[in-house]
Write a structure and sequence with these properties.
binds calcium ion; 35 strands; 16% helix; Immunoglobulin-like; alpha+beta; binds 1-deoxynojirimycin; Beta-galactosidase, Chain A, domain 5; eight-stranded antiparallel sheet
């Protein structure tokens, strides 16, 4: 029973009120989503979510389990504080410059006989719900052994997710009935009747990542990545968990357009963000994955001075701001061995100082790359020295990687991993370095608080096409509705040599990561272009060998494209089937569309364009009926916001459009 009812007035208009019931409710500003917290006879809290008066999440248990203290039961509600926020904030970069945060909040304050104070903070938005635990206990420190949070679906439906794994997100999607899912990572996207939703988390800083583990047919519990001794998290006596989030939409694309994850994160901790700049980049990268170049020094070394100069010249000539060279530093011989890399010393055939000077002269950003192989202790011992050196060289962008098992039996996604990734973000901010993290911890919106955390991999990226069965067009039609809900992805799009003709003509091509003889890109060329728009990343790569772009008419798209944008909207699509996204940067608009293995013709209203303005639309499209995936056509038209564009896509195809205002 709720025993003590108080009326409090907190700062900034927050008012506390309690009703006389065991149930505490918070409703979204539009009144459609209602979340209810209940305490049972044993003082165990639970939460349910209704949408339009229909139960979506049936009462689901809440709480944590600690080694020596009861954090889970015996609670009585003391007060409930209510708050409401309606504000618009601005980000230095992102899909949208302006973000609207409108929510109702309740803080349900409870206490149990062990002296444990628990505030359950719940925020209700029109596009979903977030809740988190704020514990204040008599202990100095605690061992969290389990999280008891459940998500009990009221009805079955379809879901899209990757398997739960504590070390990798580079896994294929499964489309399954919710009742058939045993274990899943988040974002866990689903459709129940006419509703779309996705379960994820926000503001993950000092805690393990969360999976969903099936209890019985429609009931899941939060499962935390463990430390080697089985403890899930080591925390202080007072601590706050990440938010557990449930995004809700009435169309599949509503999930993509939701800013709920960002809204649940704190404002930027970096005061001066002037050095943080979205950019397009090219690099010495794809050749290694194809097996025509190598990371180590020798006749096939990719990162040579000569090659670096060639890439800088190419970037300067093609409106590309950044260049990345993998294999520039000593230690790649140890990859897969003792995983000891040198983060400062270049190989003898890579004249780092000359390259840095040349890039600066040409106005090009030189990126550095740190593959750690998962050797976190070694990286932590050396990263500050390395970052200092990069700052001296005028470098502002660092790609990191963790391809290998983490030393000491730790998993990538455990609290140990989360803390490490965060230490890197904070140190990089001190040296004014933007980050592109591969084999990362999942994005939970911390880019709002740490806007140097630009992009990450955290999914099967382009590299899989070089040495595996590759990423299908259906995978690419699922990615925006699952992985991309968490934040930007460095997928490294845009391969033009679809069948790897150049690599196959090289008799010395190696197989460094399995049989690559039958590998190829699984989409049309137009879809490769469209992915630059669809797969948002503020650091956006043209991933092919630059010789495959030289003289190619379709590369004009990337020249005209802007990695920065002011506004974005996912316009239409269904999970696994198709997707259309539009973005605006300055006065130009970009559109990207993609289909799965089915040819598809769709009509897209252009009412997102500025009314009354005429645009030159350059359309990069498939050639319907032509089965060659390299076939494409470029068409120029004059279009306005009053027009509807008919988009015809081949199987595995797509379409990309640039809209440039006509000066009349
Ligand atoms: C895996 C990364 O995803 C890829 O981009 C990189 O080239 C290799 N590791 C080597 O660091
Ligand atoms: Ca990877």
């Amino acid at each position: 029973m709720m025993k003590l009812f108080t009326l409090l007035t907190a700062a900034a208009g927050a008012v506390t009120m309690i009703g006389c019931s065991n149930d505490v409710k918070v409703t979204s500003p539009d009144g459609r989503i209602q979340t209810t917290v209940t305490l049972d006879e044993a003082g165990v809290p639970s939460l349910s979510v209704e949408v339009d008066r229909q139960m979506l999440i049936a009462p689901s248990r809440l709480g944590l389990e600690a080694a020596d203290l009861n954090l889970a039961s015996g609670f009585e509600i003391e007060t409930v504080e209510k708050d409401h926020r309606d504000e618009t904030w601005t980000q230095p970069w992102g899909e949208n410059r302006e973000i609207h945060d409108c929510h109702n909040e309740i803080a349900v304050k409870m206490r149990n006989p062990e002296g444990v104070a628990l505030t359950l903070r719940i925020r209700a938005f029109d596009d979903g719900v977030g809740f988190r635990y704020e514990y204040d206990t008599p202990a100095d420190s605690l061992l969290i052994m389990d999280e008891l949070t459940q998500m009990n679906f009221a009805r079955d439906g379809l879901s899209w997710s990757i398997d739960g794994n504590y070390d990798t997100y580079e896994l294929p999607y499964r489309e399954q009935a919710i009742s058939a899912v045993e274990r899943a990572n988040t974002p866990f996207t689903f459709r129940v009747d006419d509703l779309y939703g996705s379960i994820h988390e926000a503001a993950l800083y000092d805690y393990p990542e969360m999976h969903l583990l099936r209890q019985d047919s429609l009931s899941f519990k939060a499962e935390l990545a463990p430390l080697p001794d089985g403890v899930k998290a080591r925390v202080g006596g007072s601590f706050t968990t990440p938010w557990r989030t449930l995004q809700i939409g009435h169309r599949a694309v509503d999930l993509i357009n939701s800013a709920l994850i960002l809204n649940l994160n704190e404002p930027s901790k970096i005061a001066d963000t002037s050095w943080i700049k979205p950019q397009k980049y090219v690099g010495v990268w794809w050749g290694m994955h194809l097996g025509t170049q190598v990371w180590t020094m020798g006749p096939r070394h990719g990162a040579t001075t000569e090659n670096a100069i060639r890439h800088i010249d190419f970037a300067a000539a093609n409106n590309i701001q950044g260049v990345l060279f993998e294999g520039w530093n000593r230690g790649w011989e140890n990859w897969g061995g003792n995983q000891q890399f040198d983060y400062v010393e270049p190989y003898a055939d890579f004249d780092l100082e000359r390259i840095a000077r040349y890039a600066a002269e040409k106005g090009i950003e030189l990126w550095m790359h740190n593959e750690t192989g998962g050797n976190i202790p070694d990286y932590e011992a050396r990263m500050e020295e390395a970052m200092k050196r990069y700052a001296e060289l005028g470098v502002h962008t660092l790609k990191t990687g963790y391809a290998g098992g983490v030393k000491g039996g730790y998993s990538h996604h455990s609290q140990y991993g989360v803390r490490h990734y965060q230490r890197v973000v904070e140190m990089a901010a001190r040296y004014q370095l933007m980050l592109d993290v591969h084999e990362p911890i999942k994005e939970t919106g911390i880019r709002r608080t740490w806007p140097n955390m630009m992009t990450r991999e955290g999914g099967r990226g382009m590299e899989w096409n070089a040495w595996s069965e590759g990423n299908s067009s259906e995978y690419l039609c699922t990615l925006p509705y699952v992985r991309l809900l968490s934040g930007p992805m460095d997928y490294t799009p845009g391969i033009f040599d679809i069948y790897y003709d150049r690599a196959k003509a090289d008799p010395g091509r190696i197989q460094w990561n399995g049989d690559n003889t039958n590998c190829s890109i699984k989409t049309t060329l137009a879809r490769q272009i469209a992915n630059w728009v669809i797969i948002y990343s503020p650091l956006q790569m043209a991933a092919d060998l630059i010789e495959n772009y030289e003289g190619h008419p379709a590369f004009q798209f990337f020249r005209d494209f802007d990695a920065d944008c002011d506004w974005s909207e996912a316009l239409q699509g269904e999970i696994g089937d198709w997707i259309v996204v539009a973005r605006r940067a300055g006065d130009r608009f970009y559109l990207g569309a993609g289909t799965n293995a089915e040819a598809r013709t769709i009509d897209q209203s252009l009412d997102f364009l500025r009314p009354g303005v005429s645009y030159t639309a350059r359309i990069y499209a498939d050639r319907p009926g032509d089965t060659l995936r390299t076939s494409y056509r470029i068409e120029e038209r004059r279009l306005t916001a009053a027009d509807t564009l008919r988009i015809e896509m081949a199987p595995d195809g797509g379409c990309a459009v640039t809209f440039e205002p006509v000066n009349e």
